[in-house]
Amino acid sequence: MNYESILYEVKDRIATITINRPDQLNSWNDQVATEVYDAMQTAGANKGVRVIVFTGAGKAFCAGGDINSFGGDPHKLMTKLPRPFDMRKRPDWQTRCSYYPAIPKPVIAMLNGATVGIGLIHALFCDVRFAAEDATITTAFSRRGLTAEYGMAWILERHVGHANALDLLLSARKIKGIEAQRMGLVNRAIPAEQLVEETYAYARDLAENCSPRSMRIMKQQLWEVPFQTCHEAVMSAGLDMPIANQGPDYKEGIASFMEKRKPNFPDDEI
């Protein structure tokens, strides 16, 4: 796909996907949705990519929906899938905003500025969130006469708890990155001038020192937790343990530790 609304780059085994509509504060529309989805799938299928960073150009991550795309039939938006449905995969991870858990690589949302409404939903379904300390974050919906869209109530409650989720949804008040970190909405709040450096340092550490297969399996395990009992989680983990214990990644992990060198993990068989 030839991208018009995003930028896609791969360097040092890190794919960077950037919403590139800075004049519109990277507002979300159908074209952005299609291109981001395609880029995520492309990065997920590329064995040369081990980590994905998702961000926005200019002063915002994504300042919500593009007002020019409002007014469509909401029932059609909810029932019309934006891509083919795969019956072999969990349906929860095939909706318009919730497909990030199915990407077999860690996805880091780098919130460089305003993160609003649907932009926040996409960030919440990523695996890790680093935000600038002064980034403005808001659910926005109640102040527009809307409700929590595309599963935001479910994913927000999982990150910040029931009381904080209600606060953020009912009031739609604006918070900064520092408060978002205190709530658990983001993993780290970082001074704006250090955000890129620290985000990519973390991404490079994952790409260089962590087994791609281990990261894929553990990501899958964690995103399955909401649907499992403790027993089911234990049994599921038990199925993979003998495979991991006898696999090349474990052997390389032990060898690199004993030899005091960086590991050279094989590419994951996605």
TrEMBL record:
Q: What class of enzyme is it?
A: lyase
Q: A Gene Ontology MF term for this entry? A: enoyl-CoA hydratase activity
* Phylogenetic classification of the source organism: Bacteria, Pseudomonadati, Pseudomonadota, Gammaproteobacteria, Pseudomonadales
The record's listing under CDD domains reads:
crotonase-like
Which protein family is named in the record?
A: Belongs to the enoyl-CoA hydratase/isomerase family.
Pfam families recorded for this chain?
ECH_1 (PF00378)
- For the keyword Transmembrane, the answer is no
Organism of this sequence: Pseudomonas nicosulfuronedens
Q: What is this protein called?
A: Enoyl-CoA hydratase
Q: What is its EC number?
A: 4.2.1.17
Classification via Gene3D superfamilies? 2-enoyl-CoA Hydratase, Chain A, domain 1, Lyase 2-enoyl-coa Hydratase, Chain A, domain 2
